[in-house]
Amino acid sequence: MDLTLKVWRQKNREEKGRLETYKVTGISEHASFLEMLDIMNEQLIKEGTEPVAFDHDCREGICGTCSLYINGEAHGPDRKVTTCQLHMRMFKDGETIYIEPWRSAAMPVIKDLIVDRSSFDRIQQSGGFVSVNTSGNTQDANALPIPKMNADKAFDAAACIGCGACVATCKNSSAMLFVAAKVSQFAYLPQGKVEAKQRVLNMVEQMDIEGFGNCTNTGACEVECPKSISIEYIAKMNREFLSASCSSES
Amino acid sequence: MSVLDSKIPDGPLKDKWTNHKNKINLVNPANKRNIDIIVVGTGLAGGSAAASLAEMGYNVKSFCYQDSPRRAHSIAAQGGINAAKNYQNDGDSVYRLFYDTVKGGDYRSREANVYRLAEVSGNIIDQCVAQGVPFGRDYGGLLDNRSFGGVLVSRTFYAKGQTGQQLLLGAYSALNRQIAKGKVTMYNRHEMVELVKVNGKARGIIARNLETGELERHSAHAVVIASGGYGNVFFLSTNAMGSNATAAWKIHKKGAYFANPCYTQIHPTCIPRSGEHQSKLTLMSESLRNDGRIWVPKNMEDVLAIREGKLSPTDLSEDKRDYYLERKYPAFGNLVPRDIASRAAKEICDAGYGVNSTGEAVYLDFASAIQRYGKQEAAIARIQNPSEADILKLGEEVIESKYGNLFQMYEKIVAEDPYKKPMMIYPAVHYTMGGVWVDYNLMTSVEGCYCIGEANFSDHGANRLGASALMQGLADGYFVLPYTIGNYLSNEIRTGKISTEAAEFVAAEKEVSDRIEKLMNIKGTKSVDHFHKLLGKAMWEYVGMTRNEEGLKKAMTEIKKIRDDFWKDVKIPGDRNSLNRELEKAGRVADFLELGELFAKDALHRNESCGGHFRKESVELDGLQKGEAKRNDTDYAYVAAWEYKGEPADAVMHKEELEFKDIELKQRSYK
């Protein structure tokens, strides 16, 4: 395949970015999208140009590092995949592909296609945990049966990889799906109940402090989420938030 | 007398850890507040250690090269975590887990360490459940288990095919709790590039801020390395692209011995490579072998027809298939340990039976499991005379619930539906059992420098059983290191704050700075990846699954040559004072180019077939095991710990003899 690539180049946080045009030829349809970028970079290095910086690590769709906005879609045209799982067979020979970073005020560009997602970490630090010490002296794991349905719901929420596609996709740059996934995981488990109120209040507050937008129920995040996290969890978080805000204790 | 003192406590095996813990010196809470610890890496071992140490009251500085601690490559572990809970009532016990792990490791691990691992395994599950890790459960609400290779019980806990992710997010949440409290200072996008020693003790590190390129000095009373394995020395592996050996290699060069570098795990079930552009390999969890049957066509004409696309594997009748693992190992069948399954796949492909265009793939077939589960589910749902379509649908649903994400991953990469057509798989480099030598307290041969998780060598011998890497990472981080480090730190309460203005820090920073300058100034003609790929090819060709003396010697010469060329001709665009991925890679590949040679040297000296590695000169000549790998306990039942002496080829070996008091050394038979 021969392709024309329009790639976002930005030197650092301060400087303005722009789209540059590069051409690649002879790409196998079995190559992954990032392998295609590897080939492009190899070419740039040969030409003496600085290669394009992009975030990636596991290249199997689980670490959540890769984060490209391809032809106007987070993680590109395929569904239920991260950028690293996207393969060139999804594109046509001769196509022009636009490659941009996530765009959100709460996730500023660091360089080229790399963004700063530390806001996600700070949201997790504000309450995304169960306060239990790691002494190993907790009760036996089977002492507390958990209905399979709840355990499964908690798992599906916990499958979030924290990539930020939901934010990049949302017209409001909202992080509701991301926050809801963690809030819901714990809300469905007895271990998470004890701190449920404070957790949801803190995490939502931190989300606002970071500058993420509000949810207007468009549902785009659910469509673009590589792990298919359902917006039902946003509803669950809203319920948790409402009941926590209304009650007087804690 | 060896210079290595493993510090294994006296007394009966089952009491060693308890007695040792009772005798460890404690640091009082007020003093802990004055002690700093650096932890490098935030995977299962590093993340859990940093969280636990902070919780105990120490000041922790935690480092990771990724943009968030949650992205460490432990996250990609799929299948599960072992624990001797015996919830399934199938006769499991601490002793059996210990026994299976030592046997699975081909009797090259330390008994006392492995027993301790088995002992704390149950606590890990309790701990993780308390943290809200959503393990798979049955309809009664209790935890479910699955079976893994090399064992006859079901002791593996799992969260679909994302167990590593869920466990890591558990450790990440514990870490976050401490970051929020201010007990852990987190340094994301930072890479450790040097260890700093003061008066022989580890006192800090030099880290490079990967965003700004700035070199930073960080001091501490102890340094913990939890930076994972070195599988990327092969270029293609199941490791993450950024996984590297730099932290481990830097401490090696500062005096930490590197043990058994040649013990690598080649995982049997990975997605085969598709072409030259391949940048990494993707694992399909070993748990798939619970339900998948491995085969190749019996007849060569069928193999060729399949390769040419004239025949579909589903058209081949049972009698024309060779389920070679079931044939050769009737007792364990498709659930033989990883080393055996990998070697068998390579052998059959080398004999020409590989089923894809490169000739490097075998089938992993779920058709019979789908049938079996479909019939079972139909009976549960009280469907009389279910149609074939009903059975398939119900069966596929069961498979989906167990391995859904893996099947989806496969389909996205290969563009074939594994529910309808058998998966194609081939072995790939996955895990490194070798690593930094540590004593029973997990301290390296540098005082005050510890090493945990995959980065150390301690628990898996020459071959790791499935689902025990997660167990070891969390055991080291949650339950072992936080205790054992107290012994050392109890002597540090009077040390006081360590200044980063000390001459040693200044010198270490200069050393790093000069090294970076040297790399940037080569201004050669070839990219870093070019050299990394050459190294990987030499490693796979001569130091992979099958080795012999001639090949290994060749590998050493070749790797040295690639290293020399690298330092003459590598081209690193950009500058050192900003985010520069090529410079990061160059530093890591420079270390791999040294490690690779030591790896080959270690493999060369170990003239026995052990673990996943078949040494051509060491093979069983007769009996039931004829043609199988021959281990040599008389001459090689020791740990080879290498001391750095400049060039990797000059490294000096120290032996730690392995004593087996509670286990009889046997030929491993899975027949």
Q: What is the element layout, followed by pairings?
A:
The complex is a heterodimer of chains A (250) and B (671).
Chain A: E1 3-9, E2 18-24, H1 33-47, E3 69-70, E4 73-74, E5 96-100, E6 109-111, E7 114-115, H2 118-125, H3 148-158, H4 165-169, H5 176-187, H6 190-193, H7 196-210, H8 220-224, H9 232-246
Helix pairs in contact in A: 2-7, 3-5, 5-7, 5-9, 7-9
Chain B: H1 16-23, H2 29-32, E1 36-40, H3 44-56, E2 59-63, E3 81-82, H4 94-104, H5 111-130, E4 156-157, H6 163-181, E5 184-187, E6 190-198, E7 201-209, E8 215-219, E9 222-225, H7 246-253, E10 258-259, E11 264-270, E12 293-297, H8 300-307, E13 321-322, H9 324-328, H10 338-353, E14 362-365, H11 367-380, H12 388-414, E15 423-432, E16 435-436, E17 449-451, H13 469-489, H14 503-522, H15 528-543, E18 546-547, H16 549-569, H17 581-605, E19 614-615, H18 633-636, E20 638-643, E21 652-657
Parallel strand pairs in B: 1-2, 1-9, 2-5, 9-17, 18-19
Antiparallel strand pairs in B: 3-4, 6-7, 7-8, 10-16, 10-20, 11-15, 12-13, 12-14, 14-15, 20-21
Notes on the structure:
The complex is a heterodimer of chains A (about 250) and B (about 675). By secondary structure, chain A is an alpha+beta fold. Chain A folds into two domains: about 5-110, Ubiquitin-like (UB roll), CATH 3.10.20.30; about 120-135 and about 145-245, Alpha-helical ferredoxin (Fumarate Reductase Iron-sulfur Protein, Chain B, domain 2, Orthogonal Bundle), CATH 1.10.1060.10. Chain A contains nine helices and seven strands, in the order E-E-H-E-E-E-E-E-H-H-H-H-H-H-H-H. In chain A, the strands form two sheets. Chain A has a five-stranded mixed beta sheet. In chain A, strand 3 and strand 4 form a beta hairpin. The radius of gyration of chain A is 20 Å and the shape is elongated. The N and C termini of chain A lie far apart (about 60 Å). The model of chain A has no long low-confidence stretch (mean pLDDT about 95). The longest helix of chain B has 27 residues, at about 390-415. The mean pLDDT of chain B is about 95. The two termini of chain B are about 40 Å apart. Chain B has helices at about 15-25, 30, 45-55, 95-105, 110-130, 165-180, 245-255, 300-305, 325-330, 340-355, 365-380, 390-415, 470-490, 505-520, 530-545, 550-570, 580-605, 635; strands at about 35-40, 60-65, 80, 155, 185, 190-200, 200-210, 215-220, 220-225, 260, 265-270, 295, 320, 360-365, 425-430, 435, 450, 545, 615, 640-645, 650-655. Chain B has 18 helices and 21 strands. In chain B, the strands form six sheets. Chain B has a five-stranded parallel beta sheet, sandwiched between helices. In chain B, strands 11-15-14-12-13 form a five-stranded antiparallel beta sheet. A four-stranded antiparallel beta sheet of chain B has the order 16-10-20-21. Chain B has two domains: about 1-265 and about 435-670, FAD/NAD(P)-binding domain (3-Layer(bba) Sandwich); about 270-430, Flavocytochrome C3, Chain A, domain 1 (Alpha-Beta Complex). Helix content of chain B is about 40%, strand content about 15%. In chain B, helix 5 (about 110-130) crosses helix 13 and helix 11 crosses helix 12 (about 390-415). With about 675 residues, chain B is α/β, with parallel strands linked by helices. Chains A and B meet through helix 1, helix 2 and helix 3 of A and helix 3, helix 5, helix 6, helix 12 and helix 13 of B.
